[in-house]
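If your schedule permits, I should be very grateful for your opinion on a structural question. The matter concerns a single protein, recorded as an amino acid sequence and a row of C-alpha cells. Could you please explain, in whatever detail you think fit, how the C-alpha cells follow from the sequence? I set the record out below, with my sincere thanks for your time.

——
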Amino acid sequence: MCIRDRAREVLKQYSEYYHTKTIKMYLTGNRQHRQWIIMAAKEQGLMPTTEGGLDFKLNVTQILDGYPGHEHAFPIYPLYEDFKTFVAESRTTYTPTLLVAYGGPWAENYYYATENVQGDPKLNFYTPKSELDAKSRRRNAGWFMKEEHVFEDHAVFVKDLVEAGGLAGVGSHGQLQGLGYHWELWSVQSGGMKEHDALKMATILGAESIGLEQDLGSIEAGKIADLVIMGKNPLDDIRNSNTVEMVMKNGRLFNAENLDEVYPQ
C-alpha cells in the first residue's frame, strides 16, 4: 500500500467509524504527507483543521494546500494587505486562541491579573473549590505589564480579516471553563473590531467554519433552538457577553445561575 492510500485508510477511521466531520491534522510529516491528508479528507467529506506550531511558513503552505481551518495565532505581526486577502479568499477559518497567544504572555494571564476570578459567584457555583483554587489563587506564569501582552496586536489582524469577508472563530483552548470563552471573545475584539463582528465570530461564522451553518449560528426558522440570553447588550460593550441569564438548548430553557429548567418543564 502506498503512503497516499495509507492516508485514506487512516482517515476512514474518522469518516466511517466515528462519523465525524472535523479532525485536527497536528503537524503531520512533511508537506507532501499533509497534501495527501487534505486530498483524502476532501474525498471523504472531512474538514481537517491544523496546528499553527509557531511556524509562519508552515501556516502559509497549509492554507495554500486547502486546509479549511487554522488554529492559533500567526506568530508574527503586523500582517499586511496581501496576506489578509490571501487568508480571506482562501476561506480558511482563522481561530487565533489568544488566551494562549504566540509571541508573548498569554492573554489569560492578563485576565487572571485584572478580573476577580476567585470571587466570581457563578464560577464558584459550577467549579469544584479545589480546582478553582488551584487555577486562580496562585499563577506560576507570573505578572506582566500590559504593554508586554501581544493579544491586542494579534487582534488587529482578526479585525482586518473579518472586515475583508474572511472567516474567523472564537476558541478559548479549554483554558478556563465558564469565563475562558468570554475572555477570548473580549481579546479578539480588543484590536478594534466592531462588537457586531465579534458576535458574528462567536455565532454564525463559527458555525460556517465547521459546516453547520444550516443548523446553528443564527436565529432562523428551521434551525436548532440554541440561544444565550443576556441581561446587558454586548453591542454596547463586548464585556456584557458575561451577563448570561438564560440558556436555551434545543428548545429547553434553563436558568444560567443554576441550570434549573424554566421551560417547558
Remarks:
- The longest helix spans residues 3-17.
